[in-house]
Amino acid sequence: MRVFIRSNYLYLAWVVSLVATGGSLFLSEVMNYAPCKLCWLQRIFMYPLVLLLGRAAIKDDRGIVGYALPLAVIGGLFSLYHYGEQKVPGMANLLPCTVGVPCNEDYLDWFGVVTIPLLALVAFVLISLLLIFGRRWSQAAPAGVIED
Q1: Under 8 Å CB-to-CB from 36, ≥6 apart: which residues?
Q2: How far is CA 68 from CA 19, 95, 133, 147, in A?
Q3: What is the dihedral of CA 114, 120, 122, 125, to 10 degrees?
Q4: Domains and CATH numbers, the chain
Q5: pLDDT tens for residues 98-146?
Q6: What are phi and psi of 35, to 5 degrees?
Q7: How many CB atoms lie within 10 A of CB 54?
Q8: I want to staple 130 with a disulfide (CB 3.0 to 4.6 A). Which of 13, 62, 121, 124 is the partner?
Q9: Per-residue pLDDT tens digits for 62-92
Q10: Which helix (H) or strand (E) holds 79?
């Protein structure tokens, strides 16, 4: 498994960003869920990852991690805050959305836990972990050595 991730972590991170971007566009354009202010902020950090990670995966540019990882971490922090605003009643008063769609609105709420910000958070965390461990494992293993 480690060998697979080490050799394909850029492709895997790119696929996660593609699925997250596609899901976000599906929910807003097909299901007609209007994005709130925090959703837009999360999109600002996810959408460029599709282009950056796609190009890096094709060109095997492992230097992209220094540029893509901050986008994933910052986007994940916005997602975490947004999820907290939806699930913790007191957090909605800290930075309320005053224009447009309220940020604590739950369009999607599966099992009382899974919401759109949680799905975005999972995507940002997956991308971050793939970039961190993929780069670490690819730097640690000498060329030609096969691990488990």
Answers
A1: 97, 100, 101, 102, 103, 105
A2: 16, 27, 14, 27
A3: -160
A4: 2-140 (1.20.1550)
A5: 666 766 677 777 777 788 899 999 999 999 999 998 777 666 555 554 4
A6: -75, 140
A7: 17
A8: 13
A9: 889 899 999 999 999 999 998 988 887 777 6
A10: helix 65-87
